[in-house]
Amino acid sequence: MAIEPWYMDESNEDPRLPHHQNPINYVSTETLIEIGVLYWKLNAKNYENDPELEKIREERGYNYFDILDLCPEKVENYEQKLKNFYTEHIHADEEIRYCLEGSGYFDVRDKADRWVRILVKEGDMIILPAGIYHRFTLDTSNYVKLMRLFKGEPVWTPYNRPQEDHPARMEYIQNLTEKVGVPVAAH
Prior knowledge:
alpha+beta, two-stranded antiparallel sheet, globular, 30% strand, disordered C terminus
């Protein structure tokens, strides 16, 4: 994996800061895989003609995409949008994001309910499983251009925490339990 995820500190400072613990406590690739996070490094400069991207889209059934430019100059109510993205939530479907330019942070909960911060930058494609608690923010550059991929009609409905009785959350917990063989406490 080309990304370096880490456990976040408990600071309430600007969410666009890295929020490293001191010392930095990196998270292993295995930990991300255990919680269902998938990652690819692709050629963002060639996204329109990239055979590897096409293969992923075909294999996983992603038949729709759009491009989202996030920056103060291009998004109305930018600060409010970022605040909404940074509110902890789940989705009923996978969240697939491919970073074409810029950078930002996806924060996901590990099995012990700790925040893991994942920096995504140009060429990074990340898939978060349905039902995982997560949030998103930009870094201090305040710019990211993302491709959002979907199966079928695009649906981006956040369900803010708590959502322990949501079918996607219950299935996610069940899948974690089956992988590990030990019940995972719902947080």
